[in-house]
Structure to design on (230 residues):
């Protein structure tokens, strides 16, 4: 058994999930993985079953936060020291996991795989939203997180426990902001991410705009009312 679990939330990823898992099994056998099939309505579940991948089946769609938390509960129960979230669309490259783990061992609680560490963001509405979230986190915590919306995040054992037991802990920038305010140590490691090769992203332009606005409001205002860990 590895000391690190790769959690792969998957919703309607029949076009990508086999490629993602095969890459892990063939090239990164030193890591354990768990696909969390979040109530997919396409053939994702059948692929996982037929190919006998390691997976957790959710009977209903809980959304990213619920699916991710299910994976963290599994990681906590099984005693993993590290857990990393990667997407089921093949965007995140597992070759960066070792680099992120090495960084965490310097004393960090969360390590983010960053597309923009030392690089400029492209000129787009989505990147403008990312820059606004970055500014909001800096304003409220003093921390500089260049890629706050990155879905490739590594968590320590202490963070695994908190995410597995707290109902309102989603894998989103506002939770990272909340944890920073509570003293969590967060670092970034430069990574390169691939484009989705199949299927469609949930984040349409309208949904992406709503997401960015929700994150901004949560970071700037709602986090002030969340109970702090004693």
């Amino acid at each position: 058994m590895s000391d690190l679990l790769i959690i792969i939330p998957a919703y309607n990823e029949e076009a990508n999930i086999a490629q993602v898992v095969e890459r892990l099994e063939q090239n990164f056998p030193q890591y354990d993985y768990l696909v969390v099939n979040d109530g997919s309505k396409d053939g994702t579940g059948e692929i996982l079953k037929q190919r006998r991948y390691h997976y957790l089946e959710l009977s209903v769609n809980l959304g990213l936060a619920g699916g991710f938390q299910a994976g963290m509960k599994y990681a906590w129960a099984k005693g993993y020291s590290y857990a990393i979230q990667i997407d089921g669309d093949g965007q995140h490259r597992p070759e960066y996991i070792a680099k992120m783990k090495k960084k965490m061992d310097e004393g960090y609680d969360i390590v983010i795989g960053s597309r923009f560490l030392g690089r400029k963001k492209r000129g787009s509405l989505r990147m403008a939203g990312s820059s606004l979230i970055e500014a909001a986190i800096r304003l409220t915590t003093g921390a500089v997180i260049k890629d706050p919306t990155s879905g490739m995040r590594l968590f320590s054992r202490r963070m695994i426990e908190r995410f597995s037991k707290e109902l309102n802990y989603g894998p989103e920038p506002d939770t990272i902001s909340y944890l920073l305010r509570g003293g969590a140590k967060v670092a970034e490691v430069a990574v390169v991410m691939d484009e989705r090769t199949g299927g469609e992203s949930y984040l349409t332009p309208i949904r992406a705009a709503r997401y960015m606005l929700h994150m901004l409001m949560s970071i700037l205002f709602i986090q002030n009312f969340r109970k702090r860990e004693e």
